[in-house]
Amino acid sequence: MTTESTNGSCEPSKITVLISGTGTNLQALIDSRNSDALPNANIVRVISDRQKAHGLERAKKNGIPTTYHGILPYKKKYPDNSSDPQHEAARKAYDADLADLVLADTPSIVVSAGFMRILTTSFLDPVKAANIPIINLHPSLHGDLIGANCIQRAWDEFQAGKRTKTGVMVHCVIAEVDMGEAVVQQEVGMGGCGSLEELNERIHACEHGLIVEGTRRVLEKVRTANG
């Protein structure tokens, strides 16, 4: 949430970022803080489900608090010995604790920037109850490719002559995977793309701008709603 200080100025919006990997999209947010692209905003914590995620080092180098929140202890505590283990009890307990971690910082927004876990209602409900929006960066246009490996799937369809474009979106997170309302999205043309690596480069270049723009748009709505 955004608050007003005693001298009447607007306190910076507080961003919590969830990551799993190298953190290039996190870096885009870090580099854009308090610029015209992302005004009056600070990242208050970076949380990763992977202990060795390079994004944690990016955050530490910029003086941003970090937390590692791994799933393994929850799988040990709530084992699933079925023939097709889904670890639902572990996931729910994990997400409930993740919500507690997030809410402790009273952020204005939660940004999922390459966080490779599907968030359950054990996380979504308490964060929603606190009126904190959650957004996610997804390498596809809304309603096109859903779930994991979207860049690979788009490339395979391009190779088969079934696709000429893909895209990137920032969307609101709901229980249905990748189906929340799009905040902002952008097409990425595939014409002349010679390899999967080149497509990855096009997608990531788009992502770095879009995650900042999506975060800015949602924070503007939060500030307006809070008066």
The structural class is alpha/beta
Strand order of the largest sheet: 3-2-1-4-5-6-7
N-to-C SSE series? EHEHEHHEHEHEEH
Gyration radius over CA: 18 Å
State the distance separating the first and last CA atoms. 11 Å
Helicity, as a percent range: 25-40%
The whole-number mean of residue pLDDT values reads 94
Tell me the overall shape.
globular
Largest sheet: 7 strands, mixed
Number of helices: 7
Low-confidence stretches: 1-8
For the secondary structure, the number of strands is 7
Strand content: 15-25%
Keywords: Transferase
EC number: 2.1.2.2
Organism: Vermiconidia calcicola
Protein name: Bifunctional purine biosynthetic protein ADE5,7
Structure write-up:
Keywords: Transferase. This is Bifunctional purine biosynthetic protein ADE5,7. Its EC number is 2.1.2.2. It is a single chain. By secondary structure, the chain is of the alpha/beta class. It has helices spanning 24-32, 54-61, 72-77, 88-103, 121-129, 150-159, 196-225, and strands at residues 13-19, 41-48, 66-68, 109-112, 134-138, 165-172, 182-189. Helix 1 (24-32) packs across helix 7 (196-225) and helix 4 (88-103) packs parallel to helix 5 (121-129). The longest helix is centred in the last third of the chain and has 30 residues, at 196-225. The radius of gyration is 18 Å and the shape is globular. The N and C termini lie close together (11 Å). Mean pLDDT is 94; it is low at 1-8.
List keywords for this structure.
globular; 7 helices; seven-stranded mixed β-sheet; 7 strands; single chain; alpha/beta; 39% helix; 227 residues
